[in-house]
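Figure 6 in text form: structure in, sequence out.
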């Protein structure tokens, strides 16, 4: 379905120049002279990269019908990552390359939102923060507290984060999913 560029909204999926992507940001610009422009920041589903595209206010843009579903992560194996639909109990397998930046934040029983286009999963949206347990961490050096001392800690998913010296194995930590940073104890 094609719509006029001025009617685009954040979160919509569009097809442009043979590539599909989701709109992350929109900026309506009206220069001193000439027609209005719509600058859209789009994340491509095929490459995962973001790019900026300009549309004239009268341009037609193809909007793709999408479906967002909440799925529960079950397990992973060499064939991919397996999620369960909580309504139908159907298992959906997503290839590991689609979860490139999200793998280290997934643990069993965690709910995520998956975007489907034409019944094919194209992206996985994690919550802003996740709670993960510390699997391994070295002991802090006594007396090394002069300059906000930190140490590396390996979490249950294999993710390594920098944490304060008081964190020990078994602690539950709150971790930011956008940059993988330590936010505090949970």
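Output sequence:
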């Amino acid at each position: 379905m094609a719509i006029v560029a001025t009617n685009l909204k954040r979160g919509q999926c569009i097809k442009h120049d043979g590539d599909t992507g989701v709109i992350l940001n929109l900026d309506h610009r009206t220069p001193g002279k000439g027609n209005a422009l719509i600058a859209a920041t789009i994340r491509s589903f095929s490459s995962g990269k973001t790019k900026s595209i300009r549309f004239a206010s009268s341009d037609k843009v193809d909007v793709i019908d999408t479906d967002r579903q909440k799925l529960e992560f079950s397990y992973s194996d060499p064939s991919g990552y397996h999620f369960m639909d909580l309504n139908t109990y159907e298992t959906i397998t997503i290839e590991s390359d689609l979860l490139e930046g999200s793998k280290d934040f997934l643990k069993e029983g965690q709910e995520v939102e998956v975007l489907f286009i034409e019944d094919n999963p194209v992206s996985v949206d994690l919550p802003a923060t996740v709670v993960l347990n510390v699997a391994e961490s070295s002991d802090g050096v006594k007396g090394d507290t002069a300059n906000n001392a930190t140490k590396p800690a390996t979490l249950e998913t294999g993710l390594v984060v920098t944490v304060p010296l008081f964190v020990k194995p078994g602690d539950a930590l709150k971790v930011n999913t956008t940059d993988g940073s330590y936010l505090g104890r949970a």
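Caption detail: The chain has a mean pLDDT of 86.
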